[in-house]
Amino acid sequence: MGGDDRVVRPFRLTTGLLVLAVAAAVLAAWLAGVLARAWEAPLAGWAMLPVLSGVAAAESWRASGARGLTIPARNFWRCVAISSAMLGLGAISNAYDALHGPGAPSQKLSPLTLGLFISASVITQIGLLRLPGARAQRGGSLQLLLDSGTVMITVALVAWHFSFRHAEAWAKVSGSVWPAVVAVVAGCASIAVFVKLASTGIGAIERGALRILAVATGVAAAAGAMAPAYAAFPAISDGHVTTALASVFIAFAADRQRRAADLPPPPPLPARRWSVLPYLAVAAANGLLLVADQGPDGRVLTAGTVLLTLVVVARQIHAFRDNARLLETVDRTVAQLREARDQLASQAAQDALTGLGNRRLLARRMEEMSGTPPHRLHLAIIDLDDFKQVNDRLGHNVGDELLRAVAVRLTGVVGTAGTVVRLGGDEFAILTDAEPCAADALAARLADALQQPLTAGTVELMVRASIGLTDAEGPEGPAGSADSRELLRRADVAMYAAKDRGKHRIARYTADLDAVATEDARIAAELRRAIDAGELHMVYQPIVRLPDGVIEAAESLIRWTHPQRGSVPPSVFIPVAERTGLIAPLGEWILREACAQAVRLRDLGVDAESEEPIRITVNVSARQLRDPDFPATVRRIMGETGADPGRLTVEVTETAVFDDDLALASVRTLREMGLRIALDDFGTGHSSLGLLQICPVDVLKVDKSFVDEIGAGGSPAVIATALLQIADGLRLRAVAEGVETPEQARQLYSLGYRYAQGYHFHRPMPADDLVRVLGLDGQRPRRKETASASPRSVSLGS
């Protein structure tokens, strides 16, 4: 009903409703007989009213106990039951008034009877108005008042025209016209409340039941208004009609409420922005005005019509104002929705951490700049070097603050010359429209700006960045989404090329970088397979003592024998492993093999009588050292293989530990574990003497470039001598690398070098050959023995 598509259980005739029907039929037959002047028998008519109201009270009380009703709804139906009982008491009192006294039967109403009827109406209205949802929203109270006034005025006019203008005749019979007036007014009020609430709906009461109650009040009020018309029939009172009709409708409404038990509450009716009620009321009043005479009745109807028209106009003005407020609310809502949409669009293109744009904004800007000449459209990707160290050592909060500080610094440098976005993690991107030279200059300014200290919270940090720069020139061009991805790919390739060149560099994209990247990917895939397929093996190059050539240590070197291409030089696949991240599993494999060789030499007893064990040297890359878990990996592998840390030396380069706190921390941890540390290629990197103070070094390996020209004298010999003096002064062991001739060996020895390595002494050899060179008997000569007696010795002139 009325938009409520819930299905109420089918109607079934109950005992109470059957009694109600019989009593109503008896009463109707009695009324028909009285109107036909066939009989009077007033007691028979009055006897049916308590029965009808009693059934209504019983049905209402049963409805209050229906399943699924809320407490306010139960209370409402109890109020209706009490109201029905009051109607029954009023009917009994009315019967007494009519059947006793002079002139009986009469239509007189005592104050008690009138009070009982009015109390019944008031109790019902109180129960209705206490229901949740009955309280009007803003402006609803005034609208309810105006609608109620419209109904009351219309009913009053109808009552006047058909009844009260003949009230003098009825007053002679009933004694006074005021009881009827009061009853009609109370009925009008009930009609107004029920009609309004039945049209707007109350979720606690079944909507059909509420409308039946609204009809009941309307019919009862209309019947009460017709009371003066009964003046010619003293046996008939308006109570016969009003009480009977009200009781019948109440009983059926209560029955419907019980049949709707356990159903969910109906959805609220949509608010109506206009109502047909005022127009119907005006039409009814004007219809009465047309048929009225020009006497007192016409004047009353005219005055009532004017009053009704004023009420309707007030109601419509209120509706217009309500509509205006609604439109204002709609306008505000639309504005808020637009603002929310713009805010969501902005947030979707904004990085939450730094406030910069994100990838969405970058893609949008690229599309907007699709018409830019390809040689002017530049994209730079900036990746912070070793940002993971900040998070690992200082925490993610400091890392976030650093990213915000970097965002501010980059924005300050770029200004209005381009768009700065954060791609994610520690990667930023800058899109600019500039000539190539201007773009290069901007990249240089960005790198210089990031070298300046940055404040992250309460910590001042130094950061470095690798920058990849590219333009849009090429067959693809800058337009379209595919070209945007291509631009990002190029800048990314250039950025990784900058990292491969030692970090803190700027690299501009060239087609050669793609070729390198493609080759790297191929080699990396094959190297990954080679690790699992057993294509890798280790060789060892001895480090000897001068001048007797006794083997003191052996450097482990990896070799790769490819099934199709044969031997692949380490200078080819080691850099690829570092660039692609394969250096971690590859380095772990190398370390495990070196530890196994150290254990083998120990078990063979080749150095059982030596003052120091023969150490196996393992090369470790910068990327491995920057891994915070690397020392733990070394400890784990030594534990699994049973290797003694005193038999291992970790060989690192200057560039791997220079200005790298995390790498230095790893080196210190390894030294504390008992491993020796060798600084490889010393003299070719940063050559910072301060590094020797902070890095726990045991061995300095002088680069081959100084050994090659040492026989010619001059600066190579001077540098080699200076390096030796530094090592002696710091009590470090100096090892000359790349000795290939007897002359180099003699010159080094004359300069003071006592350890060397190179092809002049031994080439890299498999593990079994190293054991053979060391001596199958496993005996190593003591330091005081001559080298000529040892199979592991090599003379300077051999």
Features:
798 residues, alpha/beta, 28 helices, 17 strands
Brief summary:
The protein is an alpha/beta fold. It contains 28 helices and 17 strands. The chain starts with 14 loop residues before the first helix and ends in a 24-residue tail after the last helix.
Tell how many strands the DSSP assignment holds. 17
- Helix count from the secondary structure assignment: 28
Outline:
elongated
* Distance between the ends: 115 Å
Helix content: 55-70%
Give the uncertain stretches in residue-range form: 1-5, 134-138, 476-482, 776-793
Sheet with most strands: 10 strands, mixed
Mean pLDDT: 80
Instruction: Classify the secondary structure makeup into a structural class.
Output: alpha/beta
Strand composition percent = 5-15%
Give the radius of gyration. 53 Å
Could you outline the blueprint of secondary structure elements for this entry?
Elements: H1 15-35, H2 42-64, H3 71-99, H4 111-129, H5 140-162, H6 167-174, H7 178-200, H8 207-225, H9 238-259, H10 277-291, H11 296-348, H12 359-368, E1 377-384, H13 387-394, H14 396-414, E2 418-424, E3 427-433, H15 436-451, E4 454-456, E5 459-461, E6 465-471, H16 480-500, E7 506-508, H17 511-533, E8 536-545, E9 551-562, E10 566-568, H18 570-580, H19 583-604, E11 615-619, H20 622-625, H21 630-641, E12 648-653, H22 654-657, H23 661-672, E13 676-682, H24 689-694, E14 699-702, H25 704-708, H26 715-729, E15 733-736, H27 742-751, E16 755-756, E17 765-766, H28 767-774
Parallel strand pairs: 6-7, 9-11, 11-12, 12-13, 13-14, 14-15
Antiparallel strand pairs: 1-3, 1-6, 2-3, 4-5, 8-9, 8-16, 8-17, 9-10
Helix pairs in contact: 1-2, 1-9, 2-3, 2-9, 3-4, 3-9, 4-7, 5-7, 5-10, 5-11, 7-8, 8-9, 10-11, 13-14, 14-15, 17-18, 19-21
